[in-house]
Amino acid sequence: MNPKFSIITCTKDSEQYLEQNIKSVSEQTFNDFEHILVDGQSSDKTIEIICKYQNQFPDRVISIIRSPKGIADAMNEGIKRAKGEYIICLHSDDLFNDKNVLKDTAEFLKKHQPDWTYAKEMLIDSNGKEIKLFINMNLFRSGSERFFSKYLLKYFNFVRHQSVFIKKRCF
Fold first, then answer.
1. What is the pLDDT of residues 118-133, one digit of tens each?
2. Could you state, in order of their start, the residue ranges of all structural domains in the chain?
3. d(CA 25, CA 47)
């Protein structure tokens, strides 16, 4: 049976933040997911960190080490290999806000069954200081009766892909 979520993390010399990313994923209370890490032949300890994580969770962690061709290519490779119903690209310096992100998202998806959904995203600096909160608005939540909500993404993309869960079939 395929997992509910495929979390794709692209890495290239990412040892500085990767363990925080892995911790935020591995500590999720909802466990129906796979974590796909696509590395562009890192020269630091990134691959060592990925191997340790994969050894700890061999049924859940998939590592792909390949020649670097850019982050878009790495995300596409992860998407191609993903088996989850929903995909999120959580970069190596990104984390889930708390241990219930996947559980809360799964409950929302079960109730509403959208093709994609997004969440708030907090930008923080390397010291943990909050810089900016993205998507602190309800433009799409009131339904399509709002004229501008139908066309907003076409002209102004305020939804950052690190906070988007999208059905695999949409790719």
1. 776 666 677 777 665 5
2. 5-118+159-170
3. 17
